Amino acid sequence: MSATVQQFLKAIAARRTIYALKPELPSNVSISDIQEVVQAIIKDTPTSFNAQGNRAIILTGDSHKNVWNSVVDAIEGESGKKRPTSARDEAYGSIIFLTDDKTTEKLQTDFPAWSAIFPSFADHTTGSAQISTWTAIELLGLGGHLQHYNGYVKAALPEGAIPQEWTVQAQLVFGTPAAPPGDKSYIENPVKILN
Ligand SMILES: Cc1cc2nc3c(=O)[nH]c(=O)nc-3n(C[C@H](O)[C@H](O)[C@H](O)COP(=O)(O)O)c2cc1C
């Protein structure tokens, strides 16, 4: 197998959930490096009919702290507060993935025969952007974990930060790794070739 493909597969395998974070960036990484990565991935992730409904914003500093503090306040029960509290206190920032509902609605109008499937295509393409971004930022030396406090996060964003018709899909919380990821087990899951 080519060295490039091996490297690609290695990067995919190296991406892990890292909850133990420090609220800083590795010394050789700047926030504009992260912005560049996210921008490129949002641009190059394929979308149904090339409709380009993926969106992302990056929270750092007070924006990151305030949003996660609002999530902590809004969630009931101690166990539900654990990840938002860690995001607020132990992470440097968060990448918020969104989809533009207007793009999905336009696809539904333009291609009514496939109307029912476009919302799930929006889910597929944001998921693809999320995992590519997660893989890329960990290649940069960051650690990250993926959260889904979607409605809470949307409600906590500053007024006017995003258009109302953007749906929050996920939060990739990131910082400098403070500990390696936990063990991970794998099922037997062979991919068959049918001739
Ligand atoms: C679609 C998707 C949703 C996930 N949602 C959450 C989540 O809400 N909270 C969380 O802590 N981890 C979440 N995860 C992380 C998974 O639990 C994790 O990826 C899985 O256990 C495998 O571990 P790894 O990321 O270290 O490979 C999610 C992962 C995926 C792909």
From TrEMBL:
CDD domains: Frm2-like (cd02140). Keywords: Cytoplasm, Nucleus, Oxidoreductase. Gene3D superfamilies: NADH Oxidase. The keyword Cytoplasm applies. It is found in: Cytoplasm; Nucleus. It comes from the Eukaryota. The keyword Oxidoreductase applies. This is WGS project CCBQ000000000 data, contig MAT. It comes from Kluyveromyces dobzhanskii CBS 2104.
